[in-house]
């Protein structure tokens, strides 16, 4: 799987099926919206209430215009693009580049937080490249994430999911992040990319936190840098193992061979492995937890999905639209001062696209704040759009369908254990998800 665009822009496609939702299950009424107060400049994207539910703020931003100056808790300032049409345009705007070299000094001081030499050695992956280099590197992925290959591996993925559920307590409850969501995507990823079993067993999920901003003055900086060094050492072991192992044509082996043939620099090779390991699984972990949180907040729709398992593919698309784990894209930059939907954006300032705000745009999605698991069409942007559309979208969709289907089928009575408002959301600037999700269920089938 790919990376946090962590772990991807996601452009949804309409799925075949009935054109209207089941009449037997009434849809919940959207919450009425209050008259918005004036927006500050820059708008702070921070606070517990914002992380729990950013959508009222996104509504106000969309109503006020397509582009706004915002500031993250880390102090990084950016121009935020809201609204479906504006987001889609920005994701394909040829003037907006992804290469970090385009960022100005003010952006680098706050956002380019990975220390050297690691930044130069691990940040040269697909997400931070522009054509033609991006095209050449993406071609090296081959058919690793192709829908046909993913479909062929689906029985294997189902075995992983069942094995994890088998390990949960027979009755009572569990933490579904620790017991399932944090483990299932990595098992799938290791299978798809060819990560050796011995190395897969030693991967520390804590290393995924290196994509969560920790500034130079943050008290958590020493732990952040320790994780980064450990992950870099692990990547070196992966490369060495794939170089000496018999060639079997898996993705990791192909990338190592591309480096040895001169098609990739060592920095590009390490960066692509970094991207696969971190963005190839952490976003799916977050999306599983976010989908469960959404269903727990909409018990009528949860009951509907239990009663209509055939609805699962379309339900996954709607859950991605309604609350996607990849909330905001990574940085984009203009090489020169440019107009962006009527707003002048200086060269080198960071531009961020709100995929989440685009998913709730009423001009594209009728009753956009309503969760309708039978919604069609549903051309959401949760996997991005354009050249940086998530290469692992087909894999992610399959993982999410298997994860939800397995949990609902094998854990009857699945429900939250405690107050959902007490669940803490991860502090990442660009992503949504929870680190713990205590649940209860009647029994394990």
TrEMBL record:
Biased region (Pro residues) positions are 27-43
Question: Which PROSITE patterns has this protein been placed in?
Answer: CYTOCHROME_P450
Region annotation Disordered: residue ranges?
Answer: 13-45
Is Metal-binding among this UniProt entry's keywords? yes
Keyword Ribonucleoprotein attached: no
Q: What's the superkingdom here?
A: Bacteria
Q: Entry's InterPro entries? A: Cyt_P450, Cyt_P450_B, Cyt_P450_CS, Cyt_P450_sf
Q: Which keywords has UniProt assigned to this entry? A: Heme, Iron, Metal-binding, Monooxygenase, Oxidoreductase
State a single Pfam family of this protein: p450
Q: Name the family.
A: Belongs to the cytochrome P450 family.
Give the protein name, as stated in the record. Answer: Cytochrome P450
Tell me what organism the protein belongs to.
Kitasatospora arboriphila
